[in-house]
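Lab manual, section 2.4: Encoding a predicted structure.

Procedure: take the sequence of the chain (295 residues), apply the prediction step described in section 2.3, and record the output as structure tokens. A sample record is shown.
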Amino acid sequence: MADERRIIHEISPLMSKDVLYIADRRKKEFTYPIHNHEVFELNFVENASGVRRIVGDSSEVIGNYDLVLITSPDLEHVWEQYKCASDNIREITIQFYFHLNDDNFFSRNPFNSIRKMMDEAKKGLCFPLSAIMKVYPMLNSLSSIKDSFYAVTQFLTILYELSKCDGSHTLASSSYSKIIDKDDSKQIMKVKNYINDNYRDEIRLSVLASIAGLSPSAFSRFFKIHTGKKLSDYIIDIRLGFASRMLVDTNLSISEISYNCGFNNLSNFNRIFKRKKGCTPKVFRNNYQKTRIIL
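Recorded output:
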């Protein structure tokens, strides 16, 4: 298949007693294939307008600056050359792993905002230009710090500043990345769990409203306020996330996936998928053909 990619399970250079691996490099093009890895990663790209960034089922063309945090071992990602004409690209990749949820130093109160950010970054977290510019001087000098203690403290400061910024957004969908949003109210969690369990079937507004203990009209307003999406759009996004994961992980036909994910006909599925994802299900699958490799 001409457009086939291999998803590589990358083995990080980080050793058991290391804290950071920093790669600061200039390059003319992106050639590394789509991959995932056990360690966390903060990736900064400069002077690469027109590059296409793929994280899970998210695909975006970036501007001159891009900064993304990924903290899931199963989330595939890649930066592709696409329409980038620059021959002076800078990429800074920082790989690290902190045990943030254990009863250790990083579980203490000063790290609350960083822990929350790490949770969000399981879906991939993209930072706005204002946040990038705030941490740029620290990113720019990080690889030149010879003392490892000062390098780690500067990196922690970068993470802290990013965790306090406004305007960051997650990339992969919850259903694709198999992440449960923990901060929802009990009512919303019950509704989301019902949708996740029943996305293959017809989902009735009256049933969801009953689960939340509200009238249908009150529930629609309540859901939009708490999720930022209309109920119909949310259900479509959940179904597309599961469909995207099936396109990557199974050999089911596109027609089978369409019906397995609750779409009433194949043409409707193809039309909605292309509108939301920017490509057809067939092209999406071709872009994610898998041969797992350990490096």
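Check your result against the sample. The chain is about 40% helix and 20% strand.
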